[in-house]
Task: structure prediction
Amino acid sequence: MDTESTYSGYSYYSSHSKKSHRPGERTRERHKSPRNKDGRGSEKSVTIQAPTGEPLLANDSARTEEVQDDNWGETTTAITGTSEHSISQEDIARISKDMEDSVGLDCKRYLGLTVASFLGLLVFLTPVAFILLPPILWREELEPCGTICEGLFISVSFKLLILLIGTWALFFRKQRADVPRVFVFRALLLVLIFLFVVSYWLFYGVRILDSRDRNYQGIVQYAVSLVDALLFIHYLAIILLELRQLQPMFTLQVVRSTDGESRFYSLGHLSIQRAALVVLENYYKDFTIYNPNLLTASKFRAAKHMAGLKVYNVDGPSNNATGQSRAMIAAAARRRDSSHNELYYEEAEHERRVKKRRARLVVAVEEAFLHIQRLQAEEQQKAPGEVMEPREAAQAIFPSMARALQRYLRATRQQHFHSMESILQHLACCITNGMTPKAFLERYLSAGPTLQYDKERWLSTQWRLISDEAVTNGLRDGIVFVLKCLDFSLVVNVKKIPFIVLSEEFIDPKSHKFVLRLQSETSV
Amino acid sequence: MSYIPGQQVTAIVQRVEIHKLCRGEILILGFSIGGGIDQHHSQNPFSEDTTDKGIYVTRVSEGGPAEISGLQIGDKIMQLNCWDMTMVTHDQARKRLTKRSEEVVRLLVTAVSAEGCAAVHQSPGE
Result:
């Protein structure tokens, strides 16, 4: 009876992919994993068969999980960061989500767009129609109106031009995000414009068309008033959609659930979904990239601490589950073990190793960059050696630093973020722009924001907004909503910016006087 | 005399007895004190080193009861009516000296000039 012990750390986290008990052998990585020839740095794993172990309480299925942990803690050597199984499941989840998302929301997007553009067209053609219809329909009966009408024609045309440019500037922008619900203000504005235009048409149809009004100047003035009102609605739109949220009213605290990295952003009056958009846009440039490999250790430490404690019921059979778990928690708390010691020494050792590898890497890169010399324009004909393009130069010096770089990336667990192709490209770019070795290395020495890496790491289509309140509600003090991506989530806490009472105090510049502090002397 | 924490203080002291003079409502002694553990040592011209935060006599008024009794400027007050004065704040010293219920104060003072004499040793505050 083989017990498959252990979860790999990655799949422990991605619990949403509903697997609880995996058949087949587990793959685990040893610390000295074989080097990859393609330099991709992915963890190839060595298959280890878990030793057989018998659960002590064989009839209790819940216990087998702990027994597995127990065996794992005593007999295995290493923990996987990612296993092949979890990646493949992940990919399937992602692909299916991509497919369903793209079909559904595209329709919604285009629907909104068509409604708005239809309304816009209607709005623009209305004044023109008001002006043109009377001459077309009853030209003989119209009173001639000379210069005044021509002046009004000019003003109508220019106002329409201004309206056109304004609408183009304000509304015709590439939509940058897909949000779950309709924007309330935009919908309100569209409804307002629609009602407005419809009421104007009603009046026009009833009072002017039916009765064949003769006063052409009045009709033209009516059209001018329509255009004026449209300009004012455009002003209203600017205020509601753009200006109102410029003044900061709230501060949002965004905390990433996996490692606690947090940032603060200031926003104005926005709806929850728009605030979520702002948070996400800033997430991609402010937060360091999510690295699941850095998170594996803590859960297993805790598991080891609790493992090995078994509850025996001396007084006879009873099913007091909460009592048992409480007893276990209390016993684990009282237990003297040296896990804190292990943590301390492990971290110190890791630090030391990383620093050593970093030193080797820096030296290797500096030496490599010494080999490259930029040719000035006039020297290009009489070059001592072979003249190379930046890409070839990068390929020439890359092997001398490749090994040190890979070992450093392995030590800091970033190796799957950087492929050899991306490293070469970056190196070529640095050589072209004359950067120093330190500038080249900066990308690898510290984890950067998510935008710095591949598009596949972005997962920008996978975000979900979870909120207690309706997402079109405005922000309020104390609201908490969650933005969930595949493996981690961002918890956003909204706080109101405090009302500051600032008062003025006048201190006369001449009143700054000083005296030496003598000892206090009291006479008695 | 430097003060080492935890060690006994050895000093040569002199007993001075001052009778307070009644001037109107208040009783005066006729001298000024400086120092105390809440004061800064550098402001006391009479203290010898940084650890000495005792109460020193900084001024003796002419013809006052203190001068009559033989108190001199620069004396360090070690005890006052059997209360220790080597480790008190300035305010505590002032209060003890100006108690309205006491008409006579008995001081144990020590002066730098008396260091050299081989005379009575006293370790107060046992």
